[in-house]
Specification:
The chain is an all-alpha fold. The protein has two domains: 73 residues, Serine Threonine Protein Phosphatase 5, Tetratricopeptide repeat (Alpha Horseshoe); 72 residues, Ankyrin repeat-containing domain (Serine Threonine Protein Phosphatase 5, Tetratricopeptide repeat), CATH 1.25.40.20. 58% of the residues lie in helices and 0% in strands. It contains eleven helices and no strands. It starts with a helix and ends in a 7-residue tail after the last helix.
């Protein structure tokens, strides 16, 4: 093989690689609006987030997911215990029931870290009170394991099922009995009493 031919072949190969790289870049393009939005949320840049949401032509932007984790903006701010951000995102259409790639919803995350204000915001926004983890645990079971009485109270108030079982066949009520902590037992009893009172209320004409 002659040297000029080799040089021409190398030049063609190099140009091909450049063209391929240019095509790949063209396909990938600049960061998507969702990527920009999630980066601004992670950076805590309130001005940028507000501007992106305001200018977005898509109502799905607020529920963008990170490619690697599946986290939404609600996951990000919930992990940081930022109730103001949770409220802002929900008011702009964020779905509180979207799970990440590990099957974790924002409510499950807020419960695991004991962020009661975040739990309250999410529940009042319509979050499912009994989502199941991969082991079948509900937020109420997590709260019982934490021995977090205020959190248990909030979850029961919003209708958490004390008898829903995990993969081991135990419910939140079962774990309360196993733990044997009086405050938890009293909270469950109070919750049931209140539910009974609500169920007993009748509306309409008296007979």
């Amino acid at each position: 093989m002659s040297l000029p031919f080799f040089r021409n072949g190398a030049r063609v190969a190099l140009l091909s690689l450049v063209a391929l790289g240019s095509a790949t870049f063209a396909q990938s393009g600049l960061p998507s609006e969702g990527t920009k939005f999630l980066k601004a949320v992670r950076d805590g840049d309130g001005s940028a987030v507000t501007q992106i949401v305001k200018e977005s032509a898509s109502n799905t932007l607020i529920n963008s997911r990170e490619f690697s984790t599946g986290d939404t903006a609600l996951h990000i701010v919930t992990a940081r215990r930022e109730a103001t951000w949770i409220r802002f995102l929900i008011n702009n259409g964020a779905n509180p029931n979207l799970a990440n790639k590990e099957g974790v919803t924002p409510l499950m995350l807020a419960t695991r870290i004991g962020h009661i204000e975040g739990v309250t915001e999410l529940l009042e926004a319509g979050a499912d009170v009994d989502p199941l983890s991969v082991t079948g645990e509900t937020p109420l079971i997590f709260a019982v394991h934490r021995r977090d009485v205020p959190l248990v109270r909030v979850l029961l108030k919003h209708g958490a099922d004390p008898d829903r079982t995990d993969n081991s066949g135990r419910s939140a009520r079962d774990y309360v009995e196993l733990i044997g902590e009086r405050r938890l037992s009293e909270e469950f009893a109070d919750g049931e009493a209140k539910q009974g009172e609500d169920a007993a209320q009748q509306y309409g004409p008296s007979l």
